[in-house]
Design brief:
The chain has 135 residues and is an all-alpha fold. The protein is built from three helices and no strands.
Length: 135
């Protein structure tokens, strides 16, 4: 922190004028002078430098955060595209699987139906032969 000129006499006089006695004013002035000397009190210049530094840090953070958010958005868009593609492939595969299952069920039913018709014809033929035989 920068050192600053500190008029101890003027501060002491101001304190006495405000009602402090000599000992009180002297103690306060010594404490303040020590604080200025030890750099414990910030000057306007110190605060201005800190403010400028803080603004620069915030601007850097804003810039890097904006870039990182843009990268995250890009990653999300890529994932969305891949997910949509995967879903479309899965949908097409599922549709094809359902169509194949329908065809297999239809074929199985057709074969069973043909077998039932064949059994009926065989039974009918046997009954017809049995009736002819008995006549």
């Amino acid at each position: 922190m920068a050192t600053t000129g500190f008029d101890t006499l003027k501060v002491s006089q101001d304190l006495k004028a405000a009602g402090f006695n000599e000992a009180q004013a002297g103690a306060i002035v010594r404490s303040m002078a020590g604080a200025f000397q030890d750099g414990m009190i910030a000057t306007k210049s110190d605060i201005d430098k800190l403010q400028a530094s803080t603004r620069a840090d915030v601007d850097k953070l804003r810039t890097s955060t904006t870039a990182e958010f843009a990268a995250v958005r890009t990653d999300i868009d890529k994932l969305r595209t891949l997910t949509e593609s995967d879903l479309n492939k899965l949908r097409a595969s599922t549709t094809a699987d359902i169509a194949n299952l329908k065809a297999e069920v239809f074929r199985a039913l057709w074969i069973q139906g043909a077998g039932i018709v064949g059994i009926h014809l065989t039974i009918g033929g046997l009954l017809f032969a049995a009736i002819r035989f008995l006549d």
